[in-house]
């Protein structure tokens, strides 16, 4: 198994089915905080549903699609990043994130997303990365800005989350913009 150092005590690693207990404990610690905008807490409510969520993502990853990565800080899973969508043939992907309160404020999501975007553009030759975020999720919007994504627009009331219709902002970053920003 590989892991990438993000900070002195933080690593990025692929989340796999055998991490289900650790993943569920993480979701339980941050269930309400994470669940404000992210659906994982509503889908991983016990060990079997956590396994199923990770199993489904592993199958999608094996088919060159969705991928989940965990972020550990001090040896504890505190959040993660993902390719919510990955379409190599079209050259498009969607990057996203989640974090429990104990992991916030350290820049770990931004660092982890840089790893994903680098890999998508440099290794896989993707042309476009997207960031979809609920309009009220200021922390996630701040990550998109720090990474250099551009807000393209708002899908008004397009996402039903916990019985409430949310506006979804669509942000994007093109491979040549990413390359230019790294050079500058």
Walkthrough of the structure:
- Helix 1 packs across helix 3 and helix 4 packs across helix 5.
- The chain is globular and about 45 Å long.
- It starts with a strand and ends with a helix.
- The protein is built from 6 helices and 8 strands.
- A hairpin with a 4-residue loop joins strand 4 (76-87) and strand 5.
- The chain has an 8-stranded mixed beta sheet with strand order 1-2-3-4-5-6-8-7, sandwiched between helices.
- The chain has helices at 20-35, 40-43, 47-62, 108-123, 138-147, 175-183; strands at 4-7, 10-14, 67-73, 76-87, 92-99, 128-134, 150-161, 164-174.
- It is an alpha+beta fold and 184 residues long.
Short description:
The chain is of the alpha+beta class and about 180 residues long. The chain is about 40% helix and about 35% strand.
The mean pLDDT is 95
Rg result: 16 Å
What level of helicity do the residues show?
Answer: 25-40%
Shape: globular
- Strand content bin: 35-45%
Order of helices and strands: EEHHHEEEHEHEEH
Put simply, the count of helices is 6
pLDDT under 50 segments (min length 5)?
none
What is the SS-derived class? alpha+beta
Oligomerization: single chain
**Taking strands numbered 1, 2, ... along the chain, how are they ordered across the largest sheet?**
1-2-3-4-5-6-8-7
Main β sheet profile: 8 strands, mixed
The separation of the N and C termini measures 34 Å
Could you give the count of β-strands?
8
């Amino acid at each position: 198994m590989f892991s990438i150092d993000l900070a002195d005590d933080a690593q990025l690693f692929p989340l796999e089915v055998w991490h289900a207990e650790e993943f569920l404990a993480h979701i339980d610690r941050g269930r309400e905080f994470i669940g404000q905008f992210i659906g994982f807490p509503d889908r991983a409510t016990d060990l079997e549903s956590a396994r199923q969520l990770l199993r489904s993502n592993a199958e999608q990853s094996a088919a060159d699609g969705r991928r989940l990565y965990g972020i550990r800080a001090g040896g504890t899973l505190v959040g993660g990043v993902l390719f919510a969508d990955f379409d190599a043939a079209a050259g498009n992907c969607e990057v996203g994130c989640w974090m429990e309160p104990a992991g916030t404020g350290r820049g770990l999501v931004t660092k982890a997303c840089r790893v994903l975007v680098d890999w998508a553009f440099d290794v896989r030759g993707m042309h476009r990365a997207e960031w979809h975020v609920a309009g009220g999720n200021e922390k996630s919007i701040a990550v998109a800005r720090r990474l250099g994504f551009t807000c393209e627009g708002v899908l008004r009331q397009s996402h039903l989350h916990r019985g409430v219709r949310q506006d979804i902002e669509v942000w994007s970053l093109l491979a040549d913009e990413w390359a230019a920003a790294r050079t500058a």
